## 1
Amino acid sequence: MPWTTPPPRRLVILGVAASDCHVVANQLIARFLRDEGFEVENLGACTPVEEFARACVRRPEAEAVLVGSLNGHIHEDLRGLREAKRSGRVHCPVVVGGNLSVGCGRSLASDRRLYALGVDRIVHDPATLPTVLAELRTAESQFADGRFTEDGTAVGAGAAWSGPARVS
């Protein structure tokens, strides 16, 4: 019987937005992704953008940052995201999900604000995360390097996820 090395587990960085202490969904998503074959670095609750950035620097193999919110204050919590991405400290797509605005219901204006902050994908159904991550990985693999133009537009690796964001 030949010995084979299992493929490396795909790494995602998971956390709950800075002002949010709700962790039940976070723990369930972490378990679901692990069961799907992902390595999950779970930063837990009340995670500021800077902590996500430090995790990305520490774990350059991460293929996505996943940020959850239940309290609806994610817009304020992600204010430093665009700069963290522009500086290269957050080098991979950022996917958000959960209750993304105060009150009930989803709005196109709320989604647009998140994209303007640097979010790449919005996921309303956590069951779609493996598919979303596969799409992001496929899109990213089509590019060779990770450069930015003067206006912060991505060129090369990650350019596909830095363009028009989608809702899943």
## 2
Amino acid sequence: MFARYTTVSGDPSKMESAIDYVDGQARAAVEGTDGNRGFAVIADAEGGRIIGASYWDSAESMRASEAGLAGTRDDAAAALAGEVSMESFEMTHGFRHSIPARGAIVRLSRLEVDPARVDEAISLMREETAPRVKGAEGLLSFQQLLDRNTGSGMIVTTWESQAAAEAFWPTAEQLRARASDRVGVRFGAMETYTMIRSTVQLD
């Protein structure tokens, strides 16, 4: 599966109407496009950021959808009086315990790894990291997203509450340190969002 993360950054005072647009007309347009496997809308109200994360059954369908959905991106930017940026990834590993409800906590941990070591990073995640994460109390879903060509990516976790996410953080720091030592993964700052809706078909 592949994912395109479209971030709109703009005026926090316009968040409510912008969320209504992205979760309404924009989501309907994405979900009605061939090859789509669902859409997630997450928001940082205080920071004036909305992410529309579209998931696709192949890299080809993701690329083919880009031009046809350009209008929805422009309208989302207008609704938030802001700017749009896009990132595309392969979902190299993922699982879900339950579909996140509105208000769930979403954490994005950005990372960089040498493209020559991407397969090592994927193996480490599947064999060692994911099993440690899977049993975490309050965890709803987990994804590893990577661009094999550049080595950039994200770990995306969704939690029932902020307390659950924070309780796991000491373990997450240990896992990040191991990935850095073993495969040379470089982690960036953690970003925290609130789930608005997810229709992503991880199963």
## 3
Amino acid sequence: MNFDEVEYFLANIKSVMSCKIISDANGNISEIHVLSDSSRHSKQISRDIRTALLSHFNLDVDYKIISVAQINKNISINTDFRLLYDGYTNETTNDRIKINTKLSWDEKEFTGIAEGIKSEKNTLMVAALSTLDSIKKAIDLDCFIVEDIQSARVAGKDVMVAAITHIEHGRENVLIGSSIVTNNKIDSTIKATLNAINRKVCLFFKE
């Protein structure tokens, strides 16, 4: 199941600023991470999340998998900020590959570059690293690490899955993103990497 629609719906609940759903290998919801302001108690927000999932999507989840992080509601955050993927280019030699990934927002362009040994697995890592380099230039922070890139077969379709670690104040949090392979694996790896972190970068983007 694609949870983009669910995340968008939950993000419109009162006090909720953003929401990220993580699923297990069977496609079931295993974690729900919510960012909210401090205008309501986190337990009330969790109850609203459960009620919305059950009534609107017929999804019954345990409250224990819902984590709510709250921030001061007076802090200004651009929750509309989403980096857009504008394509990539690559240069190859016999044994190396360089990938340039272009992201944009509000007529600003951010091009990331990464280079490495050209193997099937490492080429995908280079694609993810070039994406993170673009993101680093957009938010002026270096806080994401590529943990793993995997391919999977889901519902008869090839899917790329990116595991990206976000490091903040010494704590590590693994973010998962995915993208169906429509053009090629490099393209879908970039999209999966962006999918993993796009809801997180609104916290760091500066106008």
## 4
Amino acid sequence: MLDDDQLATRNAELRGTLDNLMRELKDRTDGLRDAQAAIAAMSGVASSPDGNVVVTVDSTGVLDKLELGPRAFERVTPEQLAQTITQVTRRAAMNVRDQVTERMAPLTSEEGVVDLPDIVPGAPSIKDIFRVEQRPEPAAPPPPSDEDFGSSVLRKESRPVQRAVSSSSDDEDFGGDSIMGKGNRW
């Protein structure tokens, strides 16, 4: 059993640890509020190698601005231009994601931080509140080829055109004689 002096010493240690924990929590909460404000103002920008596509995304990676240069439509198919826009948008989103990660790094560091379960066994961890989840980047599609000019710009595959077959019942309003079949005999 502990005597009064030992209890007082233990109580003072515990109080000091809790004070440090509360100070750390307040500092991190203030830092998180400041980081959120800074992150909200961030944007990511990327451009295609030729500079004809410039994309700006907001702090969440959502497209904010798309600029197409005057030569963006020259010598490319719509599919190639779409792929280029997609790739540049992904790079802009990665750019802003890197900025966010860098800004949040001091807040997500667990170095030297006392956590509530260290003091009270079974208590929830404060570190989990500030943990930032990292998602893997989806694989980018292959870059568009400058050599893909062998097919139609509007359609990659050629499909036969299907025409409606008329029956005599369709021509009943015209006495069984369609005006379409008259040719030049009007």
